[in-house]
Write a structure and sequence with these properties.
By secondary structure, the chain is mainly alpha-helical. Helices cover 80% and strands 0% of the residues. The chain is built from 7 helices and no strands. Helix 3 (44-65) runs antiparallel to helix 4 (80-112), helix 4 crosses helix 7 and helix 6 crosses helix 7. The longest helix has 33 residues, at 80-112.
């Protein structure tokens, strides 16, 4: 760092310290406090809307590698679902696709959300996972997927497993 930059930084720092010692109007203090409060304690619904947006993008990507319920947006020949069907049958495929579909969204959320939002997500993990799973199944049905109770149950089980594993992975690496 050059001497000039160092002096500029020191000057800015000294001005900041001086301004921090001045009295701020009460209105500004209240606004700053309320903004910090919202940032430190995000509402679960706000976090849900953010993760839903992430889930839509990641879910579309997920469908490109694992055609779930016969939905193949890119008309690709190969699918992770085909491999899972060969290895463990339809049951493993449903559980595996649920794991993949939900866990990728939660892992991406760990990257895109703030630490406070991730912690808020963790506090409502079960509800958020259930909501994402049911909304996803609703979209699958809207796009023509044939759903049965047993397939829905297995897929949701996989979604809960994926959500649980992804959230614990995120929390392990979140300060």
């Amino acid at each position: 760092m050059s001497n000039c930059n160092n002096n500029d930084w020191q000057h800015d720092y000294k001005e900041f310290i001086k301004s921090a010692n001045t009295k701020l109007p009460a209105e500004i203090k209240v606004r700053i406090f309320n903004k910090m409060l919202r940032l430190m304690n995000p509402k679960p619904l706000t976090v849900f809307w953010k993760i839903l947006g992430i889930h839509i993008g990641i879910g579309f990507f997920s469908l490109s590698i694992c055609h779930q319920f016969g939905i193949n947006p890119f008309n690709t020949e190969k699918s992770l679902a085909d491999w899972m069907m060969r290895v463990g049958g339809h049951q493993l495929c449903m559980i595996g696709c649920g794991v993949l579909f939900v866990s990728l969204s939660f892992l991406a959320a760990g990257y895109f959300l703030s630490i406070e939002e991730v912690k808020a997500l963790k506090r409502t993990e079960f509800l958020q996972t259930l909501a994402l799973g049911l909304i996803s199944l609703g979209f699958f049905a809207a796009f023509g997927a044939e759903l049965t109770i047993s397939l829905i149950g297995l897929w949701l089980l996989g979604g809960f497993i994926g959500g649980f594993l992804a959230m614990h992975t995120i929390m392990k690496y979140t300060p």
